[in-house]
Design goal:
single chain; 215 residues; alpha/beta; five-stranded parallel sheet; three-stranded antiparallel sheet
Length: 215
């Protein structure tokens, strides 16, 4: 029988979080909650008209974690029963994303929504910017990825070439990133990993080794 397993993955933009999350989930048969997509989905709704912070929005907006092993391996993000996953990288969404992310009321509502999703699944990886300190404080393993600014900028440019709608700007780690990194470093099962010179397969190998025996 599979054991319950919860893993948080945090880190600054383009540090390799999402790539690791999907690779790890495929190997360990887990689901992936990309928390940033929820913020983008709320920003998408806000770009279409004013929307006050409130849990009632999630009656119409639904974010289902991705399930590796299915094809295609993509999460489900729907608004009024229509998929919006391909619309989350537009310039309009980018313009509203900062405001949504900085709004304490929205952060509280979205955090509560994420906790509901996490509580509904036995084997879950939550990936984003503050998963370890908000929705997965009691995770079996906390991971924080980092990388040199120049490397992260090149990775983001590569992402932009593959998806021209994506933003190319990559700033330095924020104070929040620093706080979460320190938090993860102090956890009994925390792992802080610099991916500057590591290919994705090496990052995966290091994390699997840290986790120990197959779960």
């Amino acid at each position: 029988m599979r054991k319950q397993l919860a893993i948080s993955i945090d880190g600054p933009t383009a540090s390799g979080k999402t790539s690791l999350a999907y690779a790890l989930a495929a190997q360990l048969d887990m689901r992936v909650l990309d928390t940033g997509l929820t913020y983008r989905a709320v920003a998408y709704v806000a770009s279409r008209g004013p929307v006050p912070p409130g849990r009632q929005l999630f009656d119409a907006l639904r974010h289902e974690p991705a399930t590796p092993g299915t094809r295609p391996v993509t999460p489900t993000v729907v608004y009024h029963q229509e998929s919006i996953i391909d619309d989350l990288w537009s310039s309009e969404v980018e313009q509203h994303l900062r405001a949504v992310s900085a709004d304490p009321a929205w952060r509280h509502v979205i955090t509560q929504y994420h906790r509901t999703i996490v509580d509904g699944h036995e084997r879950m990886i939550a990936v984003g910017r503050d998963c370890a300190t908000t929705i997965m404080t009691d995770a079996d393993c906390h991971i924080f990825l980092t990388a040199a600014d120049a490397v992260r900028r090149e990775r983001r440019r590569a992402q932009h070439r593959a998806q021209p709608g994506r933003a190319v700007h990559v700033g330095p780690p924020t104070r929040l990133d620093d706080t979460i990194r320190e938090y993860v470093a102090c956890r009994p099962h925390g792992l802080v990993l610099d991916t500057t010179f590591l290919p994705a397969v090496a990052v995966l190998r290091a994390v699997v080794h840290h986790l120990g025996a197959p779960r």
